[in-house]
Amino acid sequence: MHVILIATQKGGSGKSTLAAHFGALAQRDGRTLLIDADPQGSLSFWYKRRESETPLLAKADGNTIGATLDAARADGIAWAVIDSPPHNAALTASMMSRATVTVVPVRPGPFDLDAVAATLAMARSLKAPIACVINAAPPITREAETSIVAEARAVLAGMGAPVLPGQVSQRASLSHALISGQSVNEYDPDSRAAAEIGAMWSAVSELARAFPRKP
Q1: Tens digit of pLDDT for each residue in 147-171?
Q2: pLDDT value of position 88
Q3: 214 part of a folded domain
């Protein structure tokens, strides 16, 4: 089972948005379980509005996350996508140790970039695979990323943080899709938002497949 943890020590980075979209896309590759480990429950909010019965959803906390992952593996789940809380280092570390890859969404701004350091240090101490995703960024203009995105990418590279190519832009269709319980690939499959999310999931899933499945 591949376990994709979406984590950062800062709130408002777009973890739940990525989790919902990645979960819907992962379902195309095999049985998928979304795990809402954030007490705020944004992922569960989206799921309640969803008409499709897949992917599956489970809620978990520090006491139940291990058993939830064990049960998912025993049930033949191929992908588990975890939405984590922003300010619970102990739980994040526990989940990171079980993750195939930890995805760190980073808005191109100083506060998000500063928060990456703590998550990166945790990953290094656990020797856990990690990948940063430029998220909620200004849309690409004339097929080139904006200067603030380029600067953010350079800062992350200077920190030694691996950054996936591309970006997920701040687009209204992402929010419209979530409100209706869909992924943007279901809501507006021919949109630029769908193309960006699809490309990012392809990069994440390819990276995950390069590592052994978690027991």
Answers
A1: 899 999 999 999 999 999 999 999 9
A2: 82
A3: no
Residue type, 87: H
Closest CA to 115 of 125, 124, 105: 105
Read off the pTM.
0.93
Dihedral of CA atoms 187, 192, 195, 196 in degrees, nearest 10, equals: -110
Alpha-helix runs per DSSP H in the chain:
15-26, 42-48, 65-74, 89-98, 110-126, 147-158, 172-179, 184-187, 192-209
Give Cβ neighbours of residue 11 (< 8 Å, ≥ 6 apart): 86, 87
Q: Is 215 a member of any domain?
A: no
Domain range holding 174? 2-209
Angstrom distance (rounded) from CA 33 to CA 28: 12
Find the CATH number of the domain harbouring 128: 3.40.50.300
- Check residue 60 and report its DSSP letter: -
State the total domains in the chain: 1
Residue 165 falls within a domain, yes or no?
yes
Cα separation, 121 vs 5, in Å, equals 16
